[in-house]
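Case study: Acyl--CoA ligase.
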Amino acid sequence: MDRLDWTAKWADYTPNKIALTSYDANKSYTYSDLHIYANRLIEKFTTLNLEEGDRIAVLADHGLDYLVLFVACQRMGLVIVPLNYRQSINEISKLVVDCTPSLFIYNNNHKAKAEQLPIQNLKVTSFEVLADYYQNSDYTTTKTFQIKEDNPLFIFYTSGTTGTPKGVIYTNKMLFWNSLNTSMQLGITFRDSTINTLPPYHTSGWNVFVTPLLHKGAHIGMLEKFDAEKILCLLELNKTTLFMALPTMLLMMQKTPVFKKVNLKKLRYIISGGEKVPSELVSFWKNEKNSYIRPGYGLTEAGPSITSLHHKMAELKPNSIGKPNFYLDIKIVNKAGEIVKPNEVGELCIKGDIVTPGYWNNSVRTSTKIKKGWLFTGDFAYSDEEGFLYMKGRKNDMYISGGENIYPQEIEAHLENIKHIKKAVVLSVKDEKWGECGIAFVSSTNKDLSVTGIRTELTKNLVAFKHPKYIFILDDIPLTSLGKVSRKKLNKYLNAIKSQE
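Here is what the predicted structure looks like once written out:
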């Protein structure tokens, strides 16, 4: 039995334990089911002449069958390419062409979109057809598989909120060490359980809790789409112990009528990140539900379990992303590559077995981001005297106005401290006088809030040269499918305004 084949191990130790539950289909797989179904799927893939290193592009919602595919691909050395089904036909088509898959899998929810993609010359099947086969086949095998730690397991296409998608290679080695980091920080055991509502086309949908809990022989509940009320009820009903949610999701949950009624006493930790985790959010969940939110930091190219803020420090160190996890090294460097002093801003760099070997079909990008084993994240950060880390913003987001380095995240924090402002986002544009200037988008709970009023409040706490040149008040800040701010949509809005000038 291979040491990296966690499913085979748990199928041997606890074969009848429920590994996965779909709350959409009201169906469960035991560890024995998962193990057997994966082997039957391997038999099917063998008839399709799939070989180690081949890519399988997938356009489907997250669920039980995706996990069967995961186990089968890990054993065979195949690479899963989860496609973002929220993207346009044109966007998805480019990814299919780029990853050159040997097989394309879809589920019936996305059949119509799949039929419009350039897959005419590919082997194509659906999860429904595959599931029918491996659930009803009488094929059994005692064969063991060698899982190679350096083999790619995923290609995650990521562009953040802007830019051309880049295929991040995710290996078995990254999977193992990320799982260990996560388990060490949170004390995960086979008694734990989670409910995953995150999509499969992002690393968080796999590697925040799904694969670490699979490693520990724990229980993983699956829900295809985020539903604030339903999630709260399921958390109580299933006595869920661990949950991952972006700040936007938590805000939606606490605003539902169900929030005050549910009992979440079994919920040990809520992991949050992706966007800044407001200290008010941390305090609210602790006071109202005795639930501990643990902010952290991660990115597709590493981990994603990189830093974690202990729950006992969450209110003592507001806005911190915590300290580095166990099995990795970090440094913060200036433009010259020198390590900066405490409270000095620089680029966050990460080294360890949780770092990607590179980008698919993009050696130039790989060489500029990974130098001597260090991943240059493109994120600005600083540490205080006690080693707690704080994000300052994306390197690409920082702009220079009148010779001064300006970090949008700092301005956003000041804007969000103004009464009635729910959310603030600051972008930069070219400016004839200053080189670049800031543009702020804010959403408000008060229709009477004015740009003049906002500027008056900013003057009290923020030096004048950091003030945004333009401020727009929107009904809502547009979000991506993950609940992050969509800077791409804000830039489109900005371009539309410019075209009318």
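For the exam, be able to explain this: The domain at 401-499 is CATH 3.30.300.30 (GMP Synthetase; Chain A, domain 3).
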